[in-house]
Amino acid sequence: MTKELKIRSIIYGIGVLIYVCAVMVTRKHTVADEVQFVWFLAAYLVIGFGAFQKLAEQILQKKFLTEYTLMILATVGAFGIARYREGVLVMLLFELGMIFESFATDSAKRSITKMLNIRPEYATRKVHGKEYQVAPSALKLGNTIVIKPGERIPVDAVVTEGTTSIDMKALTGESVPKSVQPGEKIYSGCINLNAVIEAKVLAVYQDSTVSRITEMVERAQDEKAESENFITRFSKIYTPIMLILALLVMIYPPLTFSYGNWDTWIYRGLIFLVVACPSGMMISVPIAFLGGIASAACHGIVVKGGNYLEDLTKADTFIFDKTGTLTEGVFHVKEIKAVGMSNEELLRIAAHVESYSNHPIAQSLQDAYDGEISQVKVGRMREIPGYGISATFEGQKVYMGSKRLMEKRRIVCDTVSKPGTVVYVALGDKYAGYIVIADTIKEKARTTLRYLKEKREAVLVMMTGDTENASIPVAKELKMDYAYTDLMPTDKMEQLEEFMELQDGMERVVCVGDGINDAPVLARADVGIAMGAMGSAAAVEAADIILMDDELPRIKDAIKIAKETLRVVTQNITFALVIKAVILVLAAIGYFIMWEAIIAEVGVMFAGILNAVWVVRYRV
Asked: In sequence order, what are the residues at sequence separation of 6 or more whose Cβ sits closer than 8 angstroms to the Cβ of residue 196?
């Protein structure tokens, strides 16, 4: 429970105590009207403290006609016609509903926090050979930190001393520990398993991986879905209409068919105001979306806003990157063809140049090379998005990448048409040969795409920067509807725009990827899904949904959670509108007294909140 909620609950409890005392005193003793007024006014002001505070905030935001306005007008009106006890009781029940809503919201947030409870508690900083325990937020760029076995890595850093294994499951779901050595980057939230290591801080705590991911989840509730925006727009129109109708109930009958009977009709008008309060819908819909976000987090899915859950239910086109998304991203060297040197020498050069990269293709080259890799021989490494990389090796310039890179450098080379990814290598401006690297389709990709095809009737598209020879066989095996290969980031964006132009207002395009090249389309798509929290930082930042464990079936889970969330939202809106319409009519003709009306309203509110909170417990 938050500190603010605790304070609000204590104030409410004091107000209830004052109200109970006032009721007991006025029942047992004959008390003057002025004394009753003071007793119940004190209880009213204390109980309604939270409501008055909220109304003041809304007025400062120039929001004058809200559910708080209706409730306060109705209860103040009850005091005006000397119905003190009922006025306080209405505020008591209303505020109880507000506190219950705050508890429900707090519970959903705690569910998210518990799932993402990977924030390190402390960091060990090393200064002049001495170690000091400090808060992770106190670390600065360039500081030296010590991470011992069993400790969480406090911030993103680069290893300077020691070799160990890192448990990255908290961020990626990957069960196999990753070995790290000096020069390799490590990420906050992961756990050091084997040995003491020292590292240099690369990012302050606020910018580190674990902090960014947690903040994205916490900010998600600020992104409103269409249903939430509908409720906000609906309230702006609904509230003044209800206020006018309540005034008509108060004024019209005493001036016409029930001439002069002002007390009765003013009282009924105030009851009408109480019943008209749209708090049930206003509260239950946002909680339902927050519940959906919390449920997704429990399944290893970070959703940045409720609007993306709603868009996901409307998705009819799914665009996938290939490498690392549809395929395992676990490559092996299939063929080496050197020009002007031995195959072993070409592999030695390639393995060294790629030694600073964690990309699966780079890893396959290092795995294939049996010799010892000396990173000091490599310098000036630079990634060329969409083309490959360049670096110096033993003082000589090396270019490695696609055929487009060779063409860009105007290097004459072979045209290789073989299944797999072809990495072309050049020393300076001289072609040195190629290496063919093969990948395998993810085992669960078939079932996920089959679900999208059969259950969602989705159009399946592959867009990749890889070659046609490496990509088309994968697309055919997965029965994709369209496959576009050899795409640059700008090409992907153009192709995405074409698909989005074909959509009508009720259809959405989803893009799934993990690399830097995917970031633009992930940001532009209606819903961008990044494969794994340890994918490209640009892709994670651009995406709307992040699959923490890098598993494609999580897309299916996300859709099911989104559908369940929207089902609950629809139920809450429909239930609230129907019940409210019935009670409004009955209240206008005098069937309800004020406290019965507020019980009916609070009942609708509680039912909606309980239904919404259930989404948090939803299991796919």
From this structure: 146, 147, 148, 149, 162, 164
DSSP string, 456-522: S--EEEEE-SS-HHHHHHHHHHTT-SEEE-S--HHHHHHHHHHHHHT--TT-EEEEEE-SGGGHHHH
d(CA 131, CA 152) in angstroms, rounded, equals: 16
Q: Contact at 8 Å (CB) between 272 and 584?
A: yes
Per DSSP, the three-state class of 194 is coil
Kindly report the CA angle at 212 between 155 and 358, in degrees rounded to 5?
A: 65
d(CA 98, CA 95): 5
59-68 confidence digits (pLDDT tens): 887 777 776 7
Catalytic residue among 311, 321, 466, 514: 321
Tens of pLDDT, residues 524-568: 888 989 876 445 565 677 788 888 777 888 999 999 999 998 888
Q: How far is CA 135 from CA 204, 433, 472, in A?
A: 11, 51, 51
Residue 152 near residue 344 (C-beta atoms within 8 A)? no
Mean pLDDT throughout 474-484?
91
Higher pLDDT, 537 or 372: 372
562 within 8 A of 225, measured Cβ to Cβ: no
Residue 235: the pLDDT is 67
- H helices present in 326-467, as ranges: 343-353, 360-368, 403-408, 445-454
Q: Return the SS3 of 383.
A: strand
Q: pTM of the entire structure?
A: 0.60
Residue at token pair 């499951």 = 169
- Report the distance separating Cα 269 and Cα 251, nearest Å: 9
C-beta separation of 353 from 398 below 8 A: yes
Model confidence over 239-274: pLDDT tens digits? Answer: 788 888 888 988 988 888 888 888 888 888 887 877
Say how many C-beta atoms besides its own lie within 10 A of residue 25's C-beta: 13
Query: Would you tell me how many other CB atoms lie within 10 Å of the CB of residue 34?
Result: 8
Burial 331-366 (b: 16+ CB within 10 A, else e): bebbebbbeeeeeeebbbbbbbbbbbbebbbbbbbe
> Cβ-count burial of 290 within 10 angstroms (0-12 exposed, 13-18 middle, 19+ buried)?
buried
Is the C-alpha dihedral spanning 577, 583, 589, 595 positive or negative?
A: negative
Give the whole-angstrom CA distance, residue 396 versus residue 316: 50
Question: What is the torsional sign of CA 331, 332, 337, 339?
Answer: positive
Q: What is the pLDDT at residue 70?
A: 72
**Can you give the pLDDT at residue 220?**
45
Q: Which pair of structure tokens corresponds to residue 543? A: 């995406």
Q: Give residue-wise pLDDT tens across range 135-181.
A: 998 999 999 999 999 898 999 899 999 988 887 655 543 445 777 88
- Is position 414 annotated as part of the catalytic site? no
Fold category of 332-438 in CATH:
Calcium-transporting ATPase, cytoplasmic domain N (3.40.1110)
Mean pLDDT value across the chain? 81
Domain ranges of the chain: 332-438
DSSP state of 327: B
Answer for the pair 615, 107: CB distance below 8 angstroms, yes or no: no
396-401 and 421-427: which strand pairing?
antiparallel
